[in-house]
């Protein structure tokens, strides 16, 4: 099983950053929360900070972990470890993705998500699990 971290990056207005996988990546042009594979000996938090810097040239602060989700693709399975985050530095520079968008939470279900991200979207949208204001952090 591949352990992967993903960032649910929320801005001051409550919009969520979503990224579109490039045409050359597996699951081409699907939407996802950005992140990547945990390296041996690396903590999930360190992985996420590294991956977001590598993929988007952003510095992030991790606000809160979210429940993990396991997904079985035909050729492999992943354990997806999501974290609510906010940007603390940098400007988005796409290094691996085709596109990005800041979306209202109500728009998230309209995206063509990578399958493993779908439970994470539903979990984020569940009002009983929602992280309140990030503006006072």
Characterise this structure:
This protein is of the alpha+beta class and 137 residues long. The chain has helices spanning 44-56, 118-125, and strands at residues 2-9, 16-21, 31-32, 35-37, 58-65, 69-72, 77-90, 97-103. The strands form 2 sheets. Strands 1, 4, 5, 6 and 7 form a 5-stranded mixed beta sheet that branches. The protein has a 3-stranded antiparallel beta sheet with strand order 3-2-8, with no helix packed on it. The longest helix is centred in the middle third of the chain and has 13 residues, at 44-56. 28% of the residues are buried. The model is unreliable at 130-137 (pLDDT under 50).
> What is the molecular shape?
globular
Structural class: alpha+beta
CATH superfamily: Nucleoside Triphosphate Pyrophosphohydrolase
What is the number of strand segments?
Answer: 8
CATH class group: Alpha Beta
| Main sheet properties | 5 strands, mixed
Give Rg in angstroms: 14 Å
Helix content: 10-25%
**CATH architecture title:** Alpha-Beta Complex
Distance between the termini: 34 Å
Measured by DSSP, the beta-strand proportion falls in: 35-45%
CATH topology (fold) name: Nucleoside Triphosphate Pyrophosphohydrolase
Spell out the blueprint of helices and strands:
Layout: E1 2-9, E2 16-21, E3 31-32, E4 35-37, H1 44-56, E5 58-65, E6 69-72, E7 77-90, E8 97-103, H2 118-125
Parallel strand pairs: 1-7
Antiparallel strand pairs: 1-4, 2-3, 2-8, 5-7, 6-7
Task: Summarize this structure briefly.
This protein has helices at 44-56, 118-125, and strands spanning 2-9, 16-21, 31-32, 35-37, 58-65, 69-72, 77-90, 97-103. It is of the alpha+beta class and 137 residues long.
């Amino acid at each position: 099983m591949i352990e992967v971290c993903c960032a649910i990056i929320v801005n001051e207005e409550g919009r969520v950053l979503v990224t579109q996988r490039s045409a050359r990546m597996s699951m081409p042009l699907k939407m996802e929360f950005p992140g990547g594979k945990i390296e041996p000996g690396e903590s999930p938090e360190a992985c996420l900070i590294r991956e977001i810097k590598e993929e988007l040239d952003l510095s992030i602060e991790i606000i809160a972990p979210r429940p993990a989700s396991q997904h079985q693709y035909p050729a492999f399975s992943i354990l997806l470890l999501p974290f609510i985050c906010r940007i603390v530095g940098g400007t988005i520079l796409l290094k691996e993705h085709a596109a990005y968008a800041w979306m209202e939470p109500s728009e998230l279900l309209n995206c063509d998500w990578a399958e493993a991200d779908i439970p994470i979207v539903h979990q984020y949208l569940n009002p009983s699990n929602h992280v309140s204001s990030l503006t006072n952090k």
